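User: Here's a protein and a ligand (PPS). What would the complex look like?
Assistant: Let me lay out the input and then the predicted complex.
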Amino acid sequence: MDSSTRGVLFDFHGVSMTRYFTDNWENVQNFQARPDDILIATYPKAGTTWASYILDLLYFGQVSSERQSTIPIYNRVPFLEIMIPSVATGKDQVDQMTTTPRLIKTHFPVQFVPKSFWEQNCRIVYVARNAKDNVVSYFHFDRMNMVEPEPGDWSSYLQRFMQGKMVFGSWYDHVTNWWKKKETYSNLHYMFFEDMVEDTGREIDKLCSFLGLTPSAEEKTRIVGGVQFDNMKKDEMVNYSTIAVMDFKISPFMRKGKVGDWKNHFTVAQNEEFDEDYKKKMRDTTLQFRTEV
Ligand code: PPS
């Protein structure tokens, strides 16, 4: 993989996308969900891997430690819409899964989710992260991931984020439209990255009550410990170090895992401009984020 593999943004049904997530569109839209499938939906860099690992441990942590020590998280929780040359498509991976429930990752905005998930009334876990830390994390990810568009410099990247010209489109539309979906679809659990950082155990409890799971106190302690940033960072099976398209010399996948790292990136002027624009874009939603904990 080199710079020629980098995706190019184009408008796809009103959302900025690259071909890696639209080439399999028909098959993905025709995906047949099962009632017990669980969809983990996020805007990129909002805590997908963290939530995926928590869910995987909740369902399969007891059953097999071999799963945890030999199967990378991106294969335990396939990425539904991905289609990268010479790699199995996410959709085929899901179709071949033998475990129940099937845990499935997506970054789709809500209107792109294949209709069978709604028809089957699948449980959906959505994780959202405050815009400022989200864009910082996305910037470093786009620097190191050779299938992402060239990020350019930070200030132009930030402008593009504000314009929604990112893969999977506008953060503002993504988080608010998923939030709105809760009004009409009750099997949706909306989580916040900041809450997970503040109190992982509390958020796992809430998640368990949504999922109808009752792990033992011991099991819960083990999971809360296992999913802490430092543990995930050194675990090859969840830190993405086994993926060829990512250059960890540029930036690691498990980068900082903090709330508030945006303060190390935004200038005072950028912050003021961002806040002003944010107020306008988020005027019509009840959704609230914390940019520090
Ligand atoms: S992706 O590529 O969209 O699937 O990325 P995603 O997993 O959503 O987001 C990666 C960011 O989540 C951070 N992360 C964590 N933070 C705290 N604790 C834990 N356990 C954890 N696991 C993942 C990861 O470090 C990325 O954020 P940044 O800010 O870049 O560090």
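Summary: The beta strands are 10-12, 15-17, 38-42, 103-106, 123-128, 188-192.
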